[in-house]
Amino acid sequence: MAARVGLTAERLTRAAAELADEVGFEQVTVSALARQFDVKVASLYSHLKNSQDLKTRIALLALEELADRAAEALAGRAGKDALAAFANVYRDYAREHPGRYAAARFRLDPETAAASAGVRHAQMTRAILRGYDLAEPDQTHAVRLLGSVFHGYVSLEMGGGFSHSAPDSQESWSRIVDALDALLRNWPTP
């Protein structure tokens, strides 16, 4: 039956990613995907091991998409311009693909993580930080700071946390990026 409908692991992963954007990443299962294709769950097991495998595949797809977008946005940019472009990629991706964005936070086993586009994300973040002349361990602290601020802000914004008061969240986002730039330029020494 799977051959009849042209199912492949890649097609199933893309469909599951779209489903995640519609219903939420946590709601995506092999059973839900089988219902979407109107096939028996068993027909999907020749392409997928289980729901964990499916979620891992969605996470890998999301990381790859984000890395590709970030690389394109960063090309030819440095300093605050690069920082803002990088931040905006994450925020825009989360707004366009909320389920995939959640998937990009899915915990991967160490071997899978090391082979994923997550490595490219870390490399791009560190490339941005080279423009701020941070040495280790400050660079690692800054990577964690940026990830925390970007993810925290996006999560709160997507949850409606900033929709009840002025100024609008775009103005705050711009001010936060400005503040991060200023902090990185004047990184405190212990």
Secondary structural class: mainly alpha
**What is the N-to-C succession of helices and strands?**
HHHHHHHHHH
> Could you give me the name of the CATH homologous superfamily?
Tetracycline Repressor, domain 2
Number of strands: 0
Number of helices: 10
Regions with pLDDT < 50 over 5+ consecutive residues?
Answer: none
The number of domains: 1
Strand content: under 5%
Under CATH at level 1, the class stands as Mainly Alpha
Calculate the terminal CA-CA distance, rounded to whole Å. 63 Å
Shape: globular
Q: Provide the helix percentage.
A: 55-70%
What is the CATH topology? Answer: Tetracycline Repressor, domain 2
Overall pLDDT level? 94
| CATH architecture descriptor text | Orthogonal Bundle
Major sheet: none
Cα-based radius of gyration, to the nearest Å? 19 Å
Please provide a brief summary of the model.
By secondary structure, the chain is mostly helical.
List keywords for this structure.
globular; DNA-binding; Homeodomain-like_sf; Tetracycline Repressor, domain 2; 190 residues
Task: Walk me through what this model shows.
The protein is mostly helical and about 190 residues long. It has a single domain, classed as Tetracycline Repressor, domain 2 (Orthogonal Bundle). About 70% of the residues lie in helices and about 0% in strands. It is built from ten helices and no strands. Helix 4 packs parallel to helix 8 (about 120-130) and helix 9 (about 140-160) runs antiparallel to helix 10. It is globular, with a radius of gyration of 19 Å. This is TetR family transcriptional regulator.
